[in-house]
Amino acid sequence: MPTGVTIVSWFDGKVQKGITVNSFTSDSLDPPLASVSIHKEAKACTSLKNKSFTINILSDEQESIAWHFAGS
Predict the structure, then answer these.
(1) pLDDT, tens digit, for every residue of 37-53?
(2) Rounded to an integer, what distance in angstroms lies between the CA atom of residue 6 and that of residue 19?
């Protein structure tokens, strides 16, 4: 995986979930808003809908985490 891989993570009930994404967009600094694009048929799309999320920018040393959330 290339440098600067991004994981979006959220809590679904009591379970932490996440997805590896190619990029995210900063929409506003005040208030702080960001958006990500996820294919509408991805399981993560339904699970993430209407939930707060965290954007995690990973280092090269965290490549295994990116692969964990990348799925198939």
Answers:
(1) 888 888 888 888 888 88
(2) 9
